[in-house]
């Protein structure tokens, strides 16, 4: 099957009360290929969750169908937080993490022959270690099963607790990412249980540890635009991230996953994304990926600078 669809929910208004057409650059081809089906069957067979499906990622057809890769979401599929832009189920998780999940993730990595695996998770504020032990176990399982696979993490903020952050760091991922997601002015509305300061401090702590210990781990963060911020605010976040030791940055268009979620406030043009990419590089990021359909893990293997 091949078709062209618009991604996201309701369109952003062009003027008060006047809907706008979704721009052409936010259209993707749906390609229900054999590879796409095989990846889906593997994920389902191992009882794994992926951010590809849970977050309704627009790039799933390409990643599963063309590249045979997926971003694994561990620690279940229920999040203890309630960010307004996210489609993952919110509430109290039904039980402890699946003890077999790290091994299943490693099995999928081997089966897909991945050279670069991306692991993310829901927030698990209900757990004593906030899920950090499960992250460490997943890294260990992948290392044991496929030692040549580079491992990238996109983690929660662990409520700023240094002990769980250190536990994950000590497992030595190759890339340790935590997204700021939006600008500080919008945090209370978009991420009511998050903290912009805490997000920056997590990146800074990783930078301090790696410098003190001579570790070559890459730090990474990402933002969505179209939530109501403006470009000067985005540039200010770039400055903050660089000041706190962030190496790699991703920038993508927010697209409301359903009509129940916050509507897009503005569509950024490809030219504006290019402007922000150039500004990021000018500020010293080692790599900046900026575009309408960019997501944290989209082509993640290309985000790590050569030699890192």
Distance between the termini: 39 Å
Query: Can you say what the CATH homologous superfamily is?
Result: Aldolase class I
Oligomer: single chain
User: How would you sum up the global shape?
Assistant: globular
Percent strand: 15-25%
Q: Return the string of H and E elements.
A: EEEEHEHHEEEHEHEHEHHEHEHE
Spans of at least 5 consecutive residues whose pLDDT stays below 50 are 1-20
The CATH architecture can be named as Alpha-Beta Barrel
- The helix-and-strand class reads alpha/beta
Examine the coordinates and then state which fold CATH places here, giving the name of the CATH topology.
Answer: TIM Barrel
What is the gist of this entry?
The chain has helices at 34-45, 51-54, 60-65, 101-112, 132-145, 162-170, 187-190, 196-213, 231-243, 270-282, and strands spanning 2-6, 13-15, 18-19, 27-31, 49-50, 71-74, 78-79, 89-90, 116-121, 150-154, 175-177, 218-225, 248-253, 287-291.
């Amino acid at each position: 099957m091949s078709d062209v669809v618009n991604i996201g929910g309701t369109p952003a208004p062009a003027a008060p009360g006047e809907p706008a057409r979704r721009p052409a650059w936010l259209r993707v081809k749906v390609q229900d290929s054999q590879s796409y089906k095989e990846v889906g069957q593997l994920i389902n067979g191992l009882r794994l969750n992926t951010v590809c499906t849970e977050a309704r990622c627009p790039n799933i057809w390409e990643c599963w169908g063309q590249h045979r890769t997926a971003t694994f979401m561990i620690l279940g599929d229920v999040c203890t937080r309630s960010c307004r832009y996210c489609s993952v189920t919110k509430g109290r998780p039904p039980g402890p993490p699946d003890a077999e999940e790290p091994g299943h993730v490693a099995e999928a990595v081997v089966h897909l022959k991945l050279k670069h695996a991306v692991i993310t998770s829901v927030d698990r504020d209900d757990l004593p270690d906030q899920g950090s032990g499960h992250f460490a176990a997943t890294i260990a399982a992948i290392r044991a099963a496929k030692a040549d696979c580079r491992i990238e993490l996109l983690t929660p903020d662990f409520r700023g607790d240094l002990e769980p952050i250190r536990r994950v760091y000590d497992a030595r991922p190759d890339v340790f990412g935590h997204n700021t997601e939006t600008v500080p002015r919008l945090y209370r509305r978009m991420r009511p249980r998050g903290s912009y300061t805490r997000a920056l401090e997590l990146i800074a702590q990783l930078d301090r540890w790696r410098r003190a210990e001579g570790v070559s781990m890459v730090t990474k963060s990402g933002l969505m635009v179209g939530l109501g911020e403006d470009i000067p605010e985005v540039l200010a976040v770039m400055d903050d991230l660089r000041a706190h030791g962030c190496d790699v940055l991703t920038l993508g268009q927010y697209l409301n996953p359903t009509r129940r979620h916050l509507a897009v406030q503005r569509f950024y043009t490809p030219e504006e994304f290019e402007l922000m990419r150039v500004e990021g590089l000018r500020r010293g990021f080692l790599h900046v990926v900026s575009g309408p359909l960019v997501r944290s893990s989209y082509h993640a293997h290309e985000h790590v600078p050569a030699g890192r």
